[in-house]
Amino acid sequence: MTAEKILTRNFGRADSHTLRAYLETGGYTAWQKAQALESAALTEEVKQSNLRGLGGAGFPTGTKWAFIPKNHTGPVYLVINADEGEPGTFKDRYLLEREPHALIEGMLIAARAIRSATGFVYVRGEYVEPWRRFSAAVREAYDDGYLGQGFDVVVHRGAGAYICGEETGLISSLEGKKGWPKVKPPFPAIKGAFGMPTIVNNVETICHVPHIINRGAAWFAGLGTKTQGGTRIFSVSGRVRKPGIYEASVSITLRELIDDLAGGVTGNGRLKAVVPGGSSAAILRFDEIDVTMDVDGLRNAGTMAGSAGVIVMDETVSIPEALMVVARFYAHESCGQCTPCRESTGWIYKMTKRIVEGHGRKDDLDKILDVARRGAGTTICAFYDGAVGPYISYIEKFRAEFEALIPK
Amino acid sequence: MPKLRINGTEVEVPPGTNLIEAARKVGVEIPHYCYHPGLSVAGQCRLCMVDIEKTPRPTIACNTQAVEGMAVWTETDRVKETRRSIMEFHLINHPLDCPVCDQAGECWLQIYYMKHGLYEPRMTDEKVHKPKAVPLGPHVILDAERCILCSRCVRFCDEITGTGELGIFYRGDHSEVGLFPGQELANKYSGNVVDICPVGALTDRDFRFQVRVWYLDAAKSVCPGCARGCNIDVHVNRRRPHHAEGRRVARLKPRVNADVNAWWICDAGRYGFAFVDDKTRLLMPSRRDGEAVADVAWDDAVAAVAAALERAAPGEVAVVASAKMANEDLWALRRLLVHRGIRRVGFRVPPRVPGDEDAFLIKADKNPNSLGAELIGLEGDVRELLTAARAGQVKVLWIFGHDLFESAWPEAAVAEALRGAETVIFTGTSANATSERARWVLPAAAWVEREGTYTNFQGRVQRFRRAVEPLGQALAEWDILGRVLQALGAEATPPRAERWFRELAAAVPAFSGLTYQALGDGGAVLSAPAAGHPRAEPGSRTSLQ
User: CA nearest A310: which of A283, A272, A270?
Assistant: First the structure.
């Protein structure tokens, strides 16, 4: 289950971020191999691998690449989403800091597959060290001729907005505009950055690509479940003995992840709840954690794999307080572009705060649930649906805890 | 052309038409805030949701193009419930200060709440507070709390004027429309943001607190501010004369005409109506003897002017017409010139400062009817005519509207010309330095006080309608000229503007076939192209009869 490390295999080396270390461990051999393959063959290989987007949405990567219009003649852009902002998620920063050349090699292969000559890497503004390490790696790759020979990489730093991790918000920001998500259609693969067909992929997703090319789609698919191949990096935080990142097959169960890898629950030692895929994922109760961590496994459990940010809460954690913190986050980060999200994230935060402070009213809980449901599915991007996950699940699964705070 | 069904009714629309416009074609109104047909699609307000067959949930109509075979439902329970939710979201942080808001009565929050909201309000928490009464520029003032962040104003400044003064700043429910640092909303079209603001966030500094909109009446009109002739509505207050210090014209609003001005008008035109209710208006016919000015009855003034014209030989009469006069007025003048055999006429008086012009709506020619005046045969050299007056060759000098002292010509030369003529007659709406030197002053009705037509620079003839009664005893110029013609023994003259137009259409080939009915609300282009049409010769009888 936890057998082989792929993305994190070199994390033990102090110099894993250097080109020398990367080459010593087989770096850039996949790129050599890919140069002999047609773009359609590369896309097909990735499709067969069942690689799914690891930024949050879980969309099949090869299928996404195939959306680029075949008859397009102008520029095509590859954009790497390194704006890792989902609360509870901190895997991409490790990849940028410790395996930056895997991303560059993956980008070279992806760019060949989608016929792109320019790649942008949008790095979260707060990620100073990851940005330095990755920029240094880009310079090395230029010096040694991996980049600049038909494919260029531009490193762009964000300015601290969660919404710029949404793919079209990211594109707006990259274009120099306010990071507002764009109305779809058109989708980015048709009309994305600077009006050109654009593929936006997560850092971790692209880091897998060299391994898929080197070792084959079947190998990669075999590492996971029927519908999702490979391993992924879980960020485990909260009340566990050993918080941190863990690379494991997507078929690992949440219980195994917490007990076997992260060393078990701390606090009072008894699990209360887990958020399995970053703050936007619906919360699971202590008795709902025998689920596999792949996209479909968690969807069937009524939540989502998201960014694989696992937040563990023991019995001493107050769920209403946790929801208040989450609600404050979404109210603060809503871009304000479309009405339901702009207005109701603030409203719901005010109500949850009031409840936590002891001024809740009897109808508040039903009001929050109703407001959340009414706004769900009505907005430009998935931000609000991401907020609705916690709003509804925290209250539905822990209603008594909220009611206890509301004066009779 | 895709064919689709909207609420079961089949409609065919051009490819690329969105569902809001397609629905309009079958008389279905899909409520919306951020969508505006003259701007890009933003998809932000989320109010225009409709159900589309085989689509799992309601979809925004503004960003959905009509597709062959599509079935759209705008009134399903699900759509109605979604609208109710979106209305609630729009209103939770709205101050609900309708009693003191200028937009009340024409506010789309009010209208849509009554049509699509009608829920029980349940927002009991403190609302978000934002800046209020912030002047954005000379004409527009912002109340950010009333704003629903539809971004129409921002898109207008980005896409129409290209000036980009406005942005939306901050995030979430603290988002705020505002000016970029160091900017002022002072572009030449800034007033349009007030028109397209669906709520009371952007209001007009000129109009606000003057009169409640439900006391206003509207008349379809044409802006007289330049040769474009933008279509407008004139909003007048006749029901509350004690409001706005008695000013009758409350505001001008653009009226859509795709061929002329689309949805827009410039600020110069929008705010150019103050003269109508100004103290300088001429209210009574008057006669001046030296310093003494005496009001006279119309009949006496008309008789005196006719007598002066009869006393002078045709060559001793000169007329400075104006391209601010309507086609009907110019045609009446033309008839008078022909009747008396007067040939000294012209209408072009160069302004002291060249008129402002841009590549969008504003034309350098600040007259609404230069092409009309030209076609009706009033072209002539005004400068030469004034030179003749200075030389004492002109006995009667009749000036329409112009203040010659504001022209490009030296004031001394103008004064000399006015002194050189035995009798100076002035016809216009307002007193000016020229009217001060006239023996006879005949007050003219302003364009909003009468019927008429202008011919714009494209050769489009457009009607303007009466919105209010003339002030005092002022009359339309065609009426004044008709009375003088009758005093001169001419055959009966038409009693209404429309009849003058009929005469004009029968006599001047370029106007042939046109009637008020044919002009409709959007005007009609001259039968002959604007260039190369046959023109009436100044002063010739033959070409007209």
Answer: A283
| 3-class secondary structure, A317 | coil
Q: What is the mean pLDDT of chain B?
A: 95
Contact A138, A103 (CB under 8 A): no
Domain B286-544 has CATH 3.40.1080.10: no
Distance, CA of B67 to CA of B52 (rounded, Å): 11
What average pLDDT score do residues A135-143 get?
A: 98
Q: How far out from the chain centre does Cα A261 lie?
A: 21
With CB atoms and an 8 Å threshold, state whether A161 touches B128: no
* DSSP assigned state of B18: B
* Chain A: residues touching B (Cβ < 8 Å): 161, 163, 178, 183, 185, 331-340, 342-347, 350-351, 354, 361, 363, 367, 374-375, 377-380
**Nearest C-alpha in A relative to B127:** A347
Cβ atoms of A137 and A101 within 8 Å: the answer is yes
- The label of the residue with tokens 């002194």 reads B419
Helix (H) or strand (E) holding A321: helix A319-333
Token output for B287: 């006669």
- Of A363, A366, A364, A370, the residue nearest A388 (C-alpha): A370
- Tens of pLDDT, residues B441-472: 999 999 999 999 999 999 999 999 999 999 99
Q: Which two tokens stand for residue B74?
A: 């705008």
CA dist B171 → A79, A85, B174 (Å)? 25, 16, 6
Angle of helix A100-114 versus helix A203-215 axis, rounded to 10: 80
Query: Would you say how long chain B is, in residues?
Result: 545
Residue B541 has pLDDT above 50, yes or no: no
Calculate what percentage of chain B has a pLDDT beyond 90.
95
- Of 3.30.565.10, 3.40.50.1820, 3.30.2270.10, 3.10.20.740, the CATH number of B3-91 is 3.10.20.740
CA atoms of A43 and B267, how far apart (whole Å): 57
Q: What is the pTM of this model?
A: 0.94
Give, in order, the Cα–Cα distances in Å from B454 to each of B393, B462, B509: 33, 6, 16
The alpha-carbon gap from A352 to the nearest alpha carbon of chain B, in Å, equals 11
Mutate to test the interface with B, among A187, A332, A342 (most CBs of B within 10 A): A342
CATH of the domain at A382: 1.20.1440.230
The predicted structure's pLDDT at residue A4: 83
Note down the domain range covering A356.
319-403
CATH of domain B108-277: 3.30.70.20
* Helix intervals (H) in B312-425: 327-340, 370-375, 382-390, 411-420
Integer Cα distance of B296 and B442 in angstroms? 10
- Residue A272 placed within a domain: yes
Write the ipTM.
Answer: 0.94
Distance CA A292, CA A249 (A): 10
- Gap between the terminal Cα atoms of chain B: 51
What is the residue whose two structure tokens read 């979430």? B172
Give me B229's structure tokens: 């002739």
